[in-house]
Fold this protein.
Amino acid sequence: MAASMNKVFLMGNLTRDPELRYVPSGSAVVNFSVAVNRTYKDTAGERKEDTSFVRVVVWGKMAEICGEYLTKGRAVLVEGRLKSRTWETPEGQKRNAMDVVATNVQFLGTRDKTQQSQRDVPFEGASKSGKAEESEESYNGVDSIDVGAESGDGQNPF
């Protein structure tokens, strides 16, 4: 079998407040998007900036902590893996998306003076390495949550 690796590190700012939910089994899951900027020079030597918006999913106790402490604009460092998902809209159209399932989220800096300064927030569900542990139901369990109507656009089930 050929070697492969699925590892992602992202540093950016939240584009909206996190959405905390609980799956039927009681596990917490939070979703948020991170804006990641890239600066480069085009062929004419002009400096350009490109922004990518990446959806992040966090599970367990770390999800609850993210839901409590993170807000729009807050800088984070996310470590995780890529996960693709497919669903069908009520109109029968197939949709695909790629998310980052986080194993570790570090809060960076502050958005304003009312938030705490740089620090990692410890949590009970962490392994000895301090990373979130996914349960067996983890990512696949989220498919049973009907939140498409809540998102407003009907294109993303989260």
Remarks:
- DSSP finds three helices and six strands in the chain.
- The domain at 8-39+48-139 is CATH 2.40.50.140 (OB fold (Dihydrolipoamide Acetyltransferase, E2P)).
- Residues 114-158 have pLDDT under 50 and may be disordered.
